[in-house]
Amino acid sequence: FGHSPYAAIEGKLSQTVQTGRIIFGYLFLVSSYSYFMSVAQALGRFFLPALAPALFNISLIIFSFLPQNWWPFPAVSLAWAALVGGVLQVILVLIVIYRMGFWPHFSLQAKKLPVRSVFNRFIPAALGLSGLSLIGLINVYFAGWLEEGSHTYIYYGDRLLELPRSLIAVSLGSALVPALSRLKAEKREEEFLKTTGYYLDFLIFLTLPCAVVLALLAQPVVELLFQRGQFDEIAVAHTASVIQVYSLVLIFSSGGRALSSGFFAADKNWHCAFGNGIYVLFHGFLAWYLTTRYGLSGLIWATALSSLFYFCFLLFLSSRYVGRLPLRLSVIRFVKNLPGLTLLALVLLCYQPLLAFTQNALPLFWSRLLILTLLFSVGGGLYLLMGIFVKQEMAREFIQLFSLRFQGKSETR
User: Fold this and answer.
1) What span, in angstroms and rounded, lies between the C-alpha atoms of 311 and 254?
2) Distance between CA 410 and CA 49 in Å, rounded?
């Protein structure tokens, strides 16, 4: 690559170091949140722990609107925003723990607890879930050799990708492990595989419309959220191109998260860790090869292709060491999603005509916000209705879960 353009920019490295020192405290906060989230999920409480990461994003948004002259340089505000968001995440989960009467306390009788068993599972589980974090670190490294702004484009793309992935894949995967573990412990192998396949299909049912939105309306969404100040049309175009490719990453990485839940429930943690190790090595080679030839687009496509490889490789390992999933039924369910996705895509393509129709009547920001909200609502509604029409069981399940959630009848369904 030669000399890094990132290091050549005066003051860039020192500002990064200062920001890193501030944000380092978030490591303790996010670790505490993960621990208490696990306790809450073990007690059958999933909604508020899954909602807590949204507070992190809200904190980032609020701090980004604060006057920049409050800080020595702009990035410091986001570092403090991360700390505040981390505190809010922990507080929300602690509220759940406190209400259930499981407030943590110290004990000197640790020898009587299954500490060794926990750590025996912790090490392979940590390796098995570290793939996406290591992929992000690899992307940061290679982006440092590209033109200035590449880190920003990838970061904003990651933020938009993380919203549906956290709400759907991470939440569903976390809730799936206890249910699958019970089935495995009771030696109900056939039901275990059917449940794993069903929730893999359910996750794909939820992520597909999000991927279509990211692919078709990436630029309007970026314009609405980020285009102001120094974030100009060129930055919008680069970030939108990242997000469009990331729509594929959303599908395959979410599918990989569902499959990894099956490994953990079947106590095949080391197999999942092995799959993640191969995934990281494959992405490292692909990122080096494609970035040297195609720059930023090569790096992003390396991320998409490696996520596809990861999903397929985990599927192969699952068939060998966990059990064969009912893939024929999964194909049928996937085909049933296509009519609804077609309607959703047609609705989303109405963005430009509607923007031209309303922009003279409303300020541009409010016009974009109104149209995107309308299209998301109408397109999502048609996707669900078409699912019901073609007898897609996932659509009925989703509506039932939503109705139960609002009625407050069940949180553990």
Assistant:
1) 9
2) 15
